[in-house]
Structure formats: structure tokens, C-alpha cells
Amino acid sequence: MTEIKKILFDKEKLKHAISEKNYTYKSLSEAMGYGKSYISDTVKRGCLMRIGDYKLMCSYLEVREDDLKPNEEIKNDAATTANFREHETRVNQMFSDLTKYVGHRLDGIQKSIDAIGDDVRACRSNTNTLKIQSEKIKEKIDGLRLDTNDALADITDKLAGIVDVSGSEKLRQAKAFLAKILNEGPYDENKIYLEAQKLQIAKKYVDRAKSELGVLVETNGYGNNKTKNWYFG
Hints:
Strands 3-5-4 form a three-stranded antiparallel sheet. A two-stranded antiparallel ribbon has the order 1-2. By secondary structure, the chain is mainly alpha-helical. Helix content is 67%, strand content 8%. The protein has two domains: 6-104, Orthogonal Bundle (434 Repressor (Amino-terminal Domain)), CATH 1.10.260; 119-231. It is rod-shaped and about 105 Å long. The longest helix has 66 residues, at 78-143.
């Protein structure tokens, strides 16, 4: 952290210089571009001023920089030095606290950005999974179409396949149900079965849909406290 350089001036010498130029603490503060109490507050804090402001004040008062500096014995006064150190410590602590606060806020913003990125990637992955499953279903349907050149045995096989597809309507519903509920993020296994039961989808179809969609399972805890969450990879 860069240390703020300051100059110690003599209050009585400043008063004399102000009087010579018909200034007051208030008018000089305002002339320097600060609030009306800048000079008086600086005096109260021990007559310590940033070097740039000190040079500006001397130019307004038309005095040399050495003219307002305290005598050597005053400069070494223990009380003044202690006041200076205390003020310096407070300023440094304020900068330190501000730096920590800004760093904390930046970390929070970065975590939010990372979380959004994870959600976007998960959404893309789920979309690709559904697209692949849709293509597979389309291929199966095309394979079930009857052709005039089919032999009797071929027609029999295809009819059996059609019956199987019709019987798997619940599996299709289970896949659609899982895709919808897991697109929101990880979901508790027991709640999934409960929601499926409300839609009259049997557990076996939910389990088959889970397998075919490539759903992953995360287990947490042990014994009675064990939980399982389903999610798309």
C-alpha cells in the first residue's frame, strides 16, 4: 500500500499568514476547492496536511513552504508525533478495510459468473441429450413402417415391434417427465418417484427412462440420513 506523504505545519504561523492575506479558515478552504471546514479540521487533527495541499495553501498565502513549518522543538513534540501516528494508523486501516471489502465483492461477482456458466453448459448438455433420444425414436419409427415387399415373417416382426412401442407409451412419458424435472437441476430420488406416481407412471418405467437417458446419481450421507439426487451429467 502506498504511504500518503504529509507535512506538519505550525498552527500559529498559519494563523499569522492567513491574517496577513485577510483570509479565514473557511475562505481559504473554499479557495483551495475544499469544504469550508477543511483547514479547521486539519488543524484539529494535529496540523498534518498532504504535501500537495500544503503546497497549494502556501501558494494562496504567498509564503515559502518553510515559512509555515514548525520549529525543530515543536516538530519533535511527543504529543504531536503521537497524534500523527494515530491518524496515519486510522487512514491505513481504512484503506486496508476498503481493499478487503472490494476483494470480497469481486469474489462474489466471480462466483455468480461461474455459476451462470455452469447452468448454461448444463442446459446445452441436456438439450443435446434430448436431441439424441429424439433421433433414436425417429429411427425406430421408420424401422416399423410396412412395405409391400415385406415377407410375412417381416410383417409379423414389425407388428410385434409396433405392439411393443405402443406398450412403451409409459416409458416415453417417463422420459419426458424425467427430462423436464431434471432440466431444473438435481432432484431427490424419492421425490421423483412420488411425482411419477401422481402422473400414474410406474417405478419400472422411471428406472428404464433413467437408464436410457443416462441420468447420473449422487449419494450423500449414510443410513437413515442417506439421500440420492438424480441429475444430467
